[in-house]
Amino acid sequence: MENFAQHLIRMAFCVMMTMQAAHADLRLKDEQLRVFATCAGRLSATMEFQWMFDGEGSEATKTQRDNMVQLINAIMPADHAREVLNWRIASKSAHAALLTRATFNDDPGDADWAQHHAARLIRECTGLLLS
């Protein structure tokens, strides 16, 4: 009887570990999706900002943004579309505010910080893409 109880405990443990692994896989995909959506939003803000100040640069940024959107579409479950759009819009708005702060700021130190921070965030995003 003790062997049967031990066997049941082992089976329950295996089932529990399998469920945790599946849940961890879903969380990882959600996190990847959030990163890609955030980067797509940042790249959109950068592209639109470049339209005003660096027209040629906007074409390269558009390609990077389009590649990020392809990554989103490759892993996004259909029921996440609204949430992904929200992430993209929020990050686009935040990045646009950072770029505005870098460009139209009376405080040179703060403007420099904002410029470096915006550039670092974009480097982190473009680093996810194959060149």
Give me a quick take on this structure:
This protein has four helices and no strands.
- What order do the helices and strands follow? HHHH
The helix content, as a percent range, equals over 70%
- Report the C-alpha radius of gyration, rounded: 22 Å
Number of H- or I-type helical stretches: 4
Unreliable runs: none
What structural category arises from helix and sheet content?
mainly alpha
Bulk shape: elongated
Amino- and carboxy-terminal Cα gap: 62 Å
Number of domains: 1
Structure, explained:
The protein contains four helices and no strands. The chain is mainly alpha-helical and 131 residues long. It has one domain. The longest helix is centred in the first third of the chain and has 52 residues, at 2-53. It is elongated.
Protein traits:
131 residues, mainly alpha
Q: Which SSEs are present, and which pair or pack?
A:
Elements: H1 2-53, H2 55-75, H3 81-103, H4 108-126
